[in-house]
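Sequence in, structure out. Go.
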Amino acid sequence: MVFTNPQWVPKLPFEPPDSVPISEFMLNELYGRRPLTDSRPPFTCGLTGHEYSAHEVKDRVYKLAKALSEELGWKPNQGTEWDKVAGIFSVNTIDTLTLSWAIHRLSALEAASKCNISRSKVFLLQVPKDLVGKQASPKDIKTVDHLIDEGASLPDLEDLRWEKGQGARQTAFLCYSSGTSGLPVSS
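Output:
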């Protein structure tokens, strides 16, 4: 489903690039965003008040992309988005978009599905203790924070080489409804 602005929304003063993924557009000042140093923290946990600065979010996305590349063998410019599918099943956390944008950095596609996935390919987002109580994360499953720490020491990823128009053609998200009124619906 292609989303378009309502009539009352003013036209942007520039044409958004269609040769970079959403993460690059949102986190890179080259595309007209407010300077990162002047930006408020983009994400704040409503339960704990914990937040990351815009610079920290950009850094976390990049380190996580490097760690996911290492863990899953995904390379930014190899294969299609359909060769690199990740399912995110999560409550909304401070790192939900960090994970999504790291996946985009690898030109991968997100989709939620029920399938047999090895526990070595499952990664947990940290959630506030208010939601999980005393329940601890399983020791055999890495967390997104663990992957970000690993990504800090990994070699840099190659730059993405998207061609003009790829942003308009390449699938970024497959989002499913909860199916409360019938079968789940993808948009």
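Check: The mean pLDDT is 80. Residues 54-72 form the longest helix (19 residues).
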